[in-house]
Amino acid sequence: MPPETPSPVFRRVGRTGWLVDLADAPDPGAAVQSVAAGLRSLAADGGLTGVVDLVPAAETVLVTVDGDAPDPRGVIASHWSALLATEVTAGGDEVEIPVRYDGPDLAGAAEAAGMTPAAFREWHRGTTWRAAFGGFAPGFFYLVPVAGADGSAPTVPDIPRRPTPRTSVPAGSVAVAAGYSAVYPSSSPGGWQLIGSTDAVLWDTDRPQPNLITAGQTVRFTEVTA
């Protein structure tokens, strides 16, 4: 955290929730992942009691406790430095998603990234992604790049959302925007840049676990032509 904000920022959510706000961290996304992982470990070890749910988002972590649990802020504040330093490890098996790079926005996204379409495809499929958090729709996960093809620090091109969202994006559309990649699990409106499509089913209520991806898992995209 920056020197002027040495302590965590808390915002009350309902009667039993606290939002830990990391918007002022040098890298909010990375800080969220570290703090969320640290809080899960702290709760599992009994250091943070009464936790009902931990929900990371882009710049916040929502901590919900049961009604009889003590206020979690003191414990979180006392472990703050350790929470920020928590190493994030992959959760569960790696998910492989086959992609046809046939999206209508592929050329524009590549241009915004300063790449040719071929180089952009290579970047996207060569990057290791992690499911940072879910939202927007059941099965929709915001994927952040965690490593390049050679294991080095990932390239994160600045690709904006579309100026005008589409009223309908087909299910299985592979998209990028604002440092994230994602797959639309169902047909819905959407403003991300569509770079490809997949037959992978991201959300299926007939499966024991409906979502194909869970928070913390690593994801790789593999190119297919049919």
Automatic annotation (TrEMBL):
Entry annotated with the keyword Hydrolase: yes
Every Carboxyltransferase domain range: 8-213
InterPro entries tied to this protein: CT_C_D (IPR003833), Cyclophilin-like_dom_sf (IPR029000), PxpB (IPR010016)
Keywords annotated in UniProt: ATP-binding, Hydrolase, Nucleotide-binding
Domain of life, source organism: Bacteria
Any GO MF annotation of the entry: hydrolase activity
Transmembrane segments: none
Protein name: Allophanate hydrolase
